[in-house]
Specification:
- The structure holds two protein chains of two kinds.
- Chain A is α+β, with helices and mostly antiparallel strands.
- Chain A has one domain: Sufe protein. Chain: A, CATH 3.90.1010.10.
- Chain A is built from five helices and four strands; from the N terminus they run ααβββαααβ.
- In chain A, strands 3-2-1-4 form a four-stranded mixed sheet.
- In chain A, helix 2 crosses helix 3, helix 3 runs parallel beside helix 5 and helix 4 runs antiparallel to helix 5.
- In chain B, the strands form five sheets. In chain B, strands 4-10-9-8-7-5-6 form a seven-stranded mixed sheet, with helices on both faces.
- In chain B, strand 11 and strand 12 form a beta hairpin.
- Chain B folds into two domains: 128 residues, Aspartate Aminotransferase, domain 1, CATH 3.90.1150.10; 255 residues, 3-Layer(aba) Sandwich (Aspartate Aminotransferase, domain 2), CATH 3.40.640.10.
- The chains are: A alpha+beta, B alpha/beta.
- The interface between A and B is medium-sized, with 20 and 18 residues.
């Protein structure tokens, strides 16, 4: 049986209630809009890259607790990283949330609270929307979609 | 046969024995996540009674053959099942003749057929197609496509805060430019029953033809296309306890006769040479290719099933459960209900304050409760209310008050997680 308390951990509920970096950066060097056609959720992601370093990152939009918490946790995680480190973290995160629940996965620190979505396949897209949007923003592709 | 005594589970208020009906649907005994299934997603697709499952199984075991084109016994059986279902569909909506029934893949297919065959041949630049803000995407996009092809314009009738069509504005929108009016009978997102008689007659007065999307109406209401006097009526088997992939387009005979074919292929032709092809007669002209024969056999059984129950009592039962559900959900602090039309059926759309519908859907599912969360293929309705999604509990003849109690307890669990 799927464990709900694994999915809705206190950290996720907290980031849903008080998302970090929840604002626009009008002058951001990179921006992308993410869209999940399944639920109609939209997410605007702003990334400020200086040299090769993400010096600021923020988001705005509406979404479920999983997508909002994931976006919030992601902004905390990639701020200060190089673009290549952030891209690599996307791959690692994506691997964690798409690995079947009976198989072990790498510990990603705070981001690991989202590993609970593995028990809920229809919710994986919610957890990965912000990350797809980040990838698109860094590639200067204006639109990301979980489709 | 001797008449049986009323079962002890018959509801004294409605005269409807819901427990007897529930026993007809094997899947209702299913457990999900270790809990008894509470299926509140019938507007999405309904569950199927044993008689429908049996009809499809019987077809494959004893009648499987292609229709209309072989001399052997199995083909005769298959053709009889297929044409029998067409005749049943005609009776079901009181169509004047089985020839006015085109068997389609479903409501979406029927609307696309009318848009491309009828719409594309009559619409000219400056003509108007009128629909409403309540429409399902499948009654919007086919018209957008044909408008783009022909230069015609879409006009959209607004809805009020209760989710009802603004009928005065509708009347004022009609003009000699109006060629087609396409409206839902019952809204899938809000459950509003549209006043179709007030839609059809004024359109005819302006010389327009009217298509009614009955996908959400046929599982609940008794439909009489001759009394309605509509020109086209479309619906799906799978919303009314039949299999997916089958639907009906009823068309006024004179219109169907004049319309060009929609798709070319086998069965829709009378003769083919490379110089000239003569099309088959209506309705076969619109049924190219080998159809979903097993599905149509199941659809026939679904019609028999629905016509075999007391539909007035079933509707009274559903209304009673909907009224109960509306009252119980309203009692939960922080709920907002969308769609409070004076006449509605089958649907309760709502939001819980501070909870995204998607999160609610996952927690409800964990409690065994199946609802739909999202925009319900009706994004304009969501936009009208300034929201992106709702939680939608939708009912059918087999739902009970006890299931609503389970829903309400599960919603309280949702609130517990988020507050």
């Amino acid at each position: 049986m799927s464990d709900l308390s694994e999915l809705y951990q206190e950290v996720i509920l907290d980031h849903n209630r008080r998302p970090r970096n929840f604002r626009a950066i009008p002058s951001a060097s990179h921006h992308a809009e993410g869209y999940n056609p399944l639920c109609g959720d939209r997410l605007n992601l702003y990334v400020q890259v200086e040299g090769n370093v993400i010096t600021d990152v923020a988001f705005q939009g509406s979404g479920c607790a999983i997508s909002k918490a994931s976006a919030s946790l992601m902004t905390d995680a990639v701020k200060g990283q190089t673009v290549n480190e952030a891209r690599a973290l996307f791959e690692r995160f994506h691997h964690v949330v798409t690995t079947p629940p009976d198989q072990p996965v790498e510990d990603l620190g705070k981001l690991s609270v989202l590993a609970g979505v593995r028990e809920f396949p229809v919710r994986v897209k919610c957890a990965s929307l912000a990350w797809h949007t980040l990838k698109a923003a860094l590639e200067r592709d204006a639109h990301a979609s979980t489709e | 046969m001797t008449p049986s005594a009323p079962s002890p589970t018959t509801d004294a208020r409605t005269g409807f024995d819901v427990q007897k009906v529930r026993r007809d649907f094997p899947i209702l005994g299913e457990r999900v996540h270790g809990k008894p299934l509470v299926y509140l997603d019938s507007a999405n697709t309904s569950q199927k009674p044993q008689v429908v499952l049996d009809a499809m199984d019987e077809y494959y075991r004893h009648a499987n053959a292609n229709i209309h084109r072989a001399t052997h016994l199995l083909s005769e059986r298959a053709t009889a099942l297929y044409e029998g279902a067409r005749a049943k569909a005609a009776t079901f909506i009181n169509a004047p003749d089985p020839k006015t029934i085109v068997l389609t893949k479903g409501t979406t297919d029927g609307i696309n057929l009318v848009a491309q065959s009828y719409g594309r041949s009559v619409l000219k630049p400056g003509d108007e197609v009128v629909l409403s803000w309540l429409e399902h995407h499948s009654n919007i996009v086919p018209w957008q496509i044909v408008c783009e092809q022909t230069g015609a314009q879409l006009r959209v009738v607004p809805i009020n805060e209760a989710g009802e069509i603004e009928i005065e504005q509708y009347r004022s929108m009609l003009s000699p430019r109006t060629r087609i009016v396409a409206m839902g009978h019952v809204s899938n997102a809000l459950g509003t029953i549209n006043p179709v008689d007030e839609i059809i007659a004024p359109a005819h007065a302006h010389g327009a033809v009217v298509l009614i999307d009955g996908a959400q109406a046929v599982p609940h209401l008794t439909v009489d296309v001759q009394a309605l006097d509509c020109d086209f009526y479309v619906f799906s088997s799978h919303k009314m306890f039949g299999p997916t992939g089958v639907g009906v387009l009823y068309g006024r005979s004179s219109l169907l006769e004049a319309m060009p074919p929609y798709q070319g292929g086998g069965d829709m032709i009378a003769s083919v040479t490379f110089e000239k092809t003569c099309y088959n007669v209506v309705p076969y002209k619109f049924e190219a290719g080998t159809p979903n024969i097993a599905g149509v056999a199941g659809f026939g059984a679904a019609i028999d099933y629905l016509m075999g129950i007391d539909r007035a009592a079933a509707l009274a039962h559903e209304d009673e459960v909907l009224t109960y559900a509306t009252a119980r959900v309203r009692e939960i602090p922080g709920t907002r209900i969308f769609g409070e039309a004076r006449r509605k059926t089958g649907v309760l759309s709502f939001l819980l304050e501070g909870v995204h519908p998607h999160d609610a859907g996952t927690i409800l599912d964990n409690e065994g409760v199946a609802v739909r969360t999202g925009q319900h293929c009706a994004q304009p309705v969501m936009d009208r209310f300034g929201i992106t999604a709702t939680i939608r509990a939708s009912l059918a003849i087999y739902n009970t008050r006890e299931e609503i109690d389970v829903l309400v307890r599960a919603l309280e669990r949702v609130r517990g997680v988020f507050t």
